[in-house]
Design brief:
By secondary structure, the protein is α/β, with parallel strands linked by helices. The chain has one domain: Alpha/Beta hydrolase fold, catalytic domain (Rossmann fold, 3-Layer(aba) Sandwich). It is 36% helix and 22% strand. The protein has an 8-stranded mixed β-sheet, with helices on both faces. α3 (93-108) packs across α4. The radius of gyration is 16 Å and the shape is globular. The two termini are 22 Å apart.
Length: 233
């Protein structure tokens, strides 16, 4: 199956879109890419292409499809920000994780995938990556500046596979007390690694974003790729 937009059958009926990127070799471990609040946009597709360039079969599912299919927004205008926040506020986390788990299963069985599958998520997807660690059989997972993880720490004890979190210390959407709570709760869980980045705001790894920080992004991305290489091959 070629790269590009595909359809995945949902567990409870219907289907949703996903963007698939394949490595030049034609096969490799899988990575589920979990979207920000802007849907499957240019940024998410570029992340998939970047992972494919590193040898991974990358797929980004449309997690807003229950509200509106094929949402694609950006962070450049106030109007699109407001639409994005609207989708975020209307988002059903449990449904989203169910769809992410369905995507994980789809990818694990894909002809191009070696069978090992991890996940990486950003913003909203950063929390979902944490929940992938607590609720699914993902072989590993990584979250970037996840929002609202502190609300689901009662699930942290379910983590049995390697999980990594990148926390922005000046995150405008995650107060410092919430960051401290997350760090404290995850500190005693052996499969979990937490990296904290001083002086950077939310979405520090979003190229072209208002708070993009090249140094922090380079460090976090390198750590993520090393993590995938170790845990996915």
């Amino acid at each position: 199956m070629p790269a590009g937009t595909i359809k995945i059958a949902a567990d409870k009926g219907g289907e949703f879109s996903a963007f698939l990127a394949l490595p030049d070799s034609g096969s490799g471990p899988g990575v589920v890419v979990l979207q920000e609040i802007f849907g499957i946009n240019f940024v998410m597709r570029e992340i998939c292409h970047g992972l494919a360039a590193q040898g991974y079969v990358a797929i980004c599912p449309d997690l807003f499809w229950h509200q509106e299919p094929d949402v694609e927004l950006c962070d450049k205008t106030e109007g699109e920000w407001q639409r994005a926040f609207g989708f975020y506020q209307g988002f059903d986390v449990d449904r989203g994780i169910a769809d992410a788990a369905t995507t994980l299963k789809y990818l694990r069985n894909h002809e191009a995938c070696t069978g090992k599958v991890g996940a990486v998520g950003y913003c909203l997807g950063g929390k979902l990556a944490y929940l992938m660690a607590t609720r699914t059989d993902a072989d590993c997972s990584v979250g970037f500046y996840g929002v609202g993880i502190d609300e689901s720490l009662d699930e942290a004890g379910n983590i049995s596979q390697p999980h990594m979190q990148h926390i922005a210390e000046e995150d405008q959407f995650v107060p410092k007390d919430a960051q401290a709570t997350v760090k404290s709760a995850l500190a005693g869980i052996s499969p979990v690694t937490v990296h904290s980045y001083p002086g950077v705001d939310h979405a520090f790894a979003r190229i072209g974003g208002a708070h993009y920080d090249a140094k922090a992004a380079e460090t976090a991305n390198a750590r993520t790729l090393d993590f995938f290489k170790t845990n996915l091959g």
